[in-house]
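REQUEST FORM: STRUCTURE PREDICTION
Request ID: SP-0412
Submitted by: Lab K.M.
Chain count: 1
Length (residues): 245
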Amino acid sequence: MASAKLLQDLLQAARQSTGAKEIARAEDAFFKALLKSTVYAHVPLAPTPPGRMRFVQFVRPDNGQTVLPIFSDREQAEVAAGNVRAIIAMAGRELLELTRGATLMLNPNVDQVALYPAEVEAILAGQSIGTFSKEGIAESEPVGACPPSCPTDELTSILRERFATEPLVRAAYLVELHRGPEFADISLFLGIVVPGAHHERLLQLTSLWIKPALKDWSTPLSVMLCKPDEELPEFFHHGVQFYGT
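STATUS: Completed
RESULT:
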């Protein structure tokens, strides 16, 4: 059984890691420990019918999504519960199995780690959920853009299938960018047009969905989320639109 301190140390290590492989190793170690740890959740103070379990959820103020809070240590759970909720403790694996289908948020007042249903299923199956890091392009940076020169059929096929189940995804683009000295740094940019409230969810799920297609890739792939009412960055017009509604 992993301790609350070990779990927090592993989470901190994952957040401080750099590079896709290092981040993936750190996150895998954290989620493996989470399944073996004692975790806590809130339940109503009122008695529940025999044979049933009711968990307390809340609506996120930033995007309106309903999430089920879980906690890596009892102290955090007690602070958040106040006098209006009871606390239940169980093994991480058991809690994740009982709450299948819900969006979880680990330590909502401190770490705010959102776990969507597809990610929970991957964690329970011992699979990596995919990783991402943030990157920016300065307005003054010279960038060359063109359609992808490497095979992308597997990637776009996976994403078309997934996006078809997400009514809020309006369009998706793929473009090859050339940056750096003599435009020698080549990467792919995936652009997804979706309302802002769903950016986090689509980014995390896309990282999970595309892992099978990227196993043998050497070209870096970045993802940009765009709102429907925003102007699409110019370089996407030099790539391909592979999904649209």
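NOTES: The chain has a mean pLDDT of 88.
Reviewed by: T.R.
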